[in-house]
Every structure is written in C-alpha cells, then in structure tokens.
Amino acid sequence: MNSILIIYTGGTIGMVRDEETGSLKSFDFDSLMNEIPEIKKFKTNIEATSFDEPIDSSNMQPENWMEIAQIIFDNYDKHDGFVVLHGSDTMAYTASALSFMLENLSKPVILTGSQLPIGVIRTDAKENLLSAIEIACLKESGNPIIPEVAIYFEYNLYRGNRSTKVSAEEFEAFKSPNYPMLAEAGVNLKFKKANIHKSTGEKLILNKHLNNHIATLKLYPGITEEQVFSVINIPGLRAVVMETFGAGNASTQLWFINLLIEAINKGIIILNISQCLGGGVEQGKYETSSAFTKIGVVSGKDMTYEAAVTKLMYLLGTELPTQEIKDWLQRSLRGEITL
Fold first, then answer.
1. How does pLDDT run across 155-213, given as a tens digit for each residue?
2. Contact 314, 93 (CB under 8 A)
3. Buried b (16+ CB within 10 A) or exposed e, 168-186
4. Which one of the listed residues 12, 123, 164, 310 is annotated catalytic?
5. What is the mean pLDDT of the chain?
6. Which domain holds residue 115?
7. Which of 6, 27, 128, 241 has the fewest CB within 10 Å, making it most exposed?
8. Which of 156, 181, 206 is the last residue of a domain?
9. pTM of the predicted model, to two decimals?
10. Domain count, the chain
C-alpha cells in the first residue's frame, strides 16, 4: 500500500474565521482533516505532521524551507510521496527552494493550498488537497509519475520552480509562463509525460545551506544613481537579482554601467532576469543589453523571479568560487530554465 506524508505549514487552507473579530486565524490539522472526510476513502496510508506553530506564508523564511526539506529527507524512505499544505502567497518561492535543496529527488513533493479557507462553502481547498494527494500516490510501472517538486492549484499541476502567483482573488492563482503544465485534472488526470522530470535514480541529497545575502534591483524609467548605488553597497551583499525590461534591456547611461562594473569588480553577482511574465533574457539581442555580457552580468534566461532568488541562495550556500556560481546559474539544475 502506498504511503503519503502530509506536511501542514499553515496558510489559508487551514484558516477559520474568528466570529468576534472577523479575521482569519489558523486552526489545528486534525480539524482540517475532519473538514475533508473524503481523505479516508483513499486506499493509501496517509500520515500527517505539522509545524509546531503553523504560519501565514507571508512569514515564510529560509529556515522554514529547511524545516520542510528536513522533514521530507528524514521520512523519505518511509513514504512514496509528500503533500505540503502551504499559503499561496509565497508558495512558488518554497517550491523553487525545495527543488534546489532536494537534489536527486525521485518522489513527488506536491505543494497546494487554497484561496478560500476550508470552512467556507465555496472553498477550493477540498479539490486542491484531494487531487494533490491522488497525484502524489500515482505510479506507473512501480515508479512515481511525478518525481519532482510541483504545485497543484485549480485543476493544474505545474513544475514548482517554473510557477508564479498571478492572482490574489481568482481560484486559478498560479501560472507557469515559460513551461507547459505537468498535468491537468478533469474527469481524468491527464499527465503531460514529455514535460515531466526524469528521475536519475541517485540517492537523495539534502542541501542544507542557503545564503540570503542578496538584493533585488527592479529597474524603472527614472531610477536614480543614488538608488542603484545604495543597493550595490549593502553590507555583506553577495548577489543582485536585476529585473530588466523586455528581453533583458536596461539604460545605457554611463553612470549605470559603471555602477554595475563597480559591483562586479567587488565580487557581487548581477543576475539579469526580465520583468515580463513570459519570455526571458537574451543579452545582446538589442544594443541596450549588449554591454551586460561584456562586463560580466549573468543572463537569467527565462527563470521566474522566485527561481532566480532561491537558486542564488542555494548556489551561494555551496560556497563555490564566484565564477563557478555564475556558470551554474546559466545551466538548468532542476528544470528551472529552458536551455
């Protein structure tokens, strides 16, 4: 019999409305299970564990990612798959981080949550959770169909490190702009097998160290020299995710280029990703990005912002030489970029 471990971290899926204040508050996992009695119909051994103090996903931190990854690692041989219940706001960050932390993953780690609390009549929590469990259970020829970190939300299954939250109010809260979905849930579950990661069969490795000494520089018309200077001079800074226009374009003003050179000469990695939801960086396609490759700015290709941030944290945590980190940033480690 298959065995699935549900990891409850908190989020809207486990919230109830306080009758006195009207605000949402977290409640215990046993109550959540009681709200979805259909879980008992699975011919699967389902166990559950929970954060000691469930949190809103807006409070999610790298140490919480470590806690989730450690739970999966410690229980890896006991279970066939894992379902992580998580708030939707930072779910794509957690999914991306877990994909880098769990090296050689060959079992499903499915993150899901909901836009409405479990106790609300029109909640999307039940379908999301039940389908996530079913996907985590499914095998073909004895092997899991989804041997990777994924997000299931509103009838669609996406690669975790390709996903981003696009709506705060629609049930279809996530999209995967640069990679096709892994599965679609209708009357039947339709898996897009060509899009699914292939397991290496190697032993699972837990990458424990993340370095969050990074910053974001989102460009806009009118950004000042003082603003850019302040970002690249943050004490202890190791890397900057620079969100540029279109296919990786930015100002060609001399002060801007010189500040980037100054940062790179100090050993700070500048990772160039596009502000656009779809598409990616093509450094040198236009004159406004041609200088970047020459001075050592790294192309993030078509990575999501969430994948760029967490991949940098993971690679900086390896303490590899800066040039090696730059090289790895441009390679697909867990299917996070299109080669």
1. 899 999 999 998 888 777 889 999 999 999 888 889 999 999 988 889 999 999 999 99
2. no
3. eeebebbbbebbebbbebe
4. 12
5. 90
6. 3-206
7. 27
8. 206
9. 0.93
10. 2
